[in-house]
Amino acid sequence: MIHSSAELGTLRQEIAEACRVLADRGLADGILGHISLQIDAQRLLVRCRGPYERGLAFTEAADIHLVDLDGEPAGHGELEGGWSVPNELPLHTEVLRTRPDVTAVVHAHPPQVIAADLAGIAIRPIIGAFDMPGARLAEGGVPVYPRGVLVRDRRLAAEMVESMGDRPVVVLRAHGLTSTGSGVADAVLRAISVDTIAALSLRIVSAGGVLADLSEADMAELPDLGGAFNTATAWRHELARLDHNLSS
Questions:
Q1: Which of 67, 88, 110, 163 could form a disulfide with 27 if both were Cys (CB 3.0 to 4.6 A apart)?
Q2: pLDDT interval class at 1 (50, 70, 90)
Q3: Does the annotation count 7 as an active-site position?
Q4: pLDDT, tens digit, for every residue of 132-189?
Q5: DSSP characters for 173-203?
Q6: CATH code of the domain covering residue 196
Q7: Closest CA to 8 of 58, 67, 49
Q8: Beta strands 43-47 and 144-145: pairing type?
Q9: Which residues, 6 or more positions from 73, have their beta carbon under 8 angstroms from its beta carbon?
Q10: Cα–Cα distance between 159 and 156 in angstroms, integer?
């Protein structure tokens, strides 16, 4: 269990960086989207709305607040000074209540994912070594929550969770996606993979091509390079890419 303000401070910074990565990757333009990280059975850190909201691309650690599963402040000074939890906090908390395998939840609005779904294009394993974690994610299926609503209460969040099932990502029709993971990096990288497959699918179809899933034989040949490469190294790249883009 995390107790110290120093530990919480490190996690606030991690979530803030992840929000900026989402925006830099084009998955959360403007002021929409948020990320949460479960701290214990009753508390989570979540990107909140402040009195001077500037959008995910400019998220700072001060934008991340500690709340309980009902959205109430869970620490001294939390949500004071005009801060509020996202309207769609139930989207996060219902996942955390029902999925013990999940500690981090990402909600983003990637235009290419929305466009592909509305065009009737599912997220399929059309790629192989190009993005092996993404290929495996797509092979297992990416379900769709078919309602283009603001997931603002537990009733709607329960519908979304039912659509998600045991999968790590669900597309929200005419809305965006919800991605989960055992940590913030894991959840964000999965969202990026889904967005990449959606973008490739749209390009292939618009060029007159026909989508085809990777063969079972080729899928079986894809090695699992492990979390040290698939997550840790990939996440270092995302942070380095973000710093480079911000400084150029």
A1: 110
A2: low
A3: no
A4: 999 999 999 999 999 999 999 999 999 999 999 999 999 999 999 999 999 999 999 9
A5: TTTEEEEEESSHHHHHHHHHHHHHHHHHHHH
A6: 3.40.225.10
A7: 67
A8: unpaired
A9: 65, 66, 67, 79, 80
A10: 5
In the chain, how many domains are there? 1
Query: How far is 145 from 177, CA to CA, in rounded Å?
Result: 9
Q: Give the closest residue to 226 by CA, choosing from 127, 136, 123, 104.
A: 136
Structural domain range at position 29 = 5-247
Tens digits of per-residue pLDDT, 219-248? 999 999 888 888 999 999 999 999 999 887
CA-CA distance, 3 to 204, in Å (whole number)?
Answer: 50
Catalytic residue among 78, 88, 94, 238: 88
For the chain, strand residue ranges (E) read 34-38, 43-47, 64-68, 104-108, 144-145, 169-172, 176-181
Global pTM?
0.96
C-alpha 221, offset from chain centre? 28
124: left (phi over 0), alpha (psi -120 to 50) or beta: beta
Q: Predicted confidence band at 15 (pLDDT cuts at 50, 70, 90)?
A: very high
